[in-house]
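batch job 7 of whatever, protein = RNA methyltransferase
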Amino acid sequence: MRARSKKAVFAASSDNAGSITVCGVRTVSAMLEAGRLRYLLVTHTSNSRVQEILYKAEKKSIPIRQVADVELVRLSDNSQHQGVAGLAEPPVADWRQLLRRAEAPLVVLDGVTDPRNLGAVLRVGRAFAVAAVVMPSRRSAPLSAAAAKASCGAAAFVPLHRVTNLRRALTEIKQAGWFVVGACEDAKISLVDATPTSSSPICWVFGDEGSGLRRLTVENCDLLARIPTVVGEAGCLNVATACAACLATGANRWFPE
């Protein structure tokens, strides 16, 4: 294992504005597989899964440093780091190219502030091959170590795009030919009964679990639909579960031919 000083590793990381800290075997492995891992920090090298990561990182000439467990805990937002963490550059969507990707659905998050919810949505997005996840640059969850870990590796493959004005972004999405569907528990139309007015690619919009979609966001949706659930405590789904339900429902009926 090559020796690297703490100062050298983190001085270099400060030059990468789009870099994030990732932790956990699955997340670090995914970033390594995707060619997005830039530095590697380990503490429990006796673990066979960590040893495999070390071997692959060495072959790719990725800088490696062994650190104390307490340092990995600090860097990983107190998440279970499993003895490994690193610095990675997650994929970022190019806005113009993104709007031309009509072969895959698009997910927009309005006011989702919990990093673990963001990570879970990225995981769902990876499962359904979404074009990207779009969210406001302010008052939204950061792609932190906790979010990346909750994504179970999906943060290495699903592009995340931040916009300064969500209303304007939705307008541009619609102008590019997407059909925008907002998930709203108060909507009159059920998801299973909803039918788009065209064969356009679908853009799904999800709000915060507490407050839901904001008024301006609702006004920029082509359709509002609710997920049919039983009345009671089970009726309110978290944002990642709602996302999965919508993408699964639309997978067979709403994808363009």
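notes: Residues 239-253 form the longest helix (15 residues).
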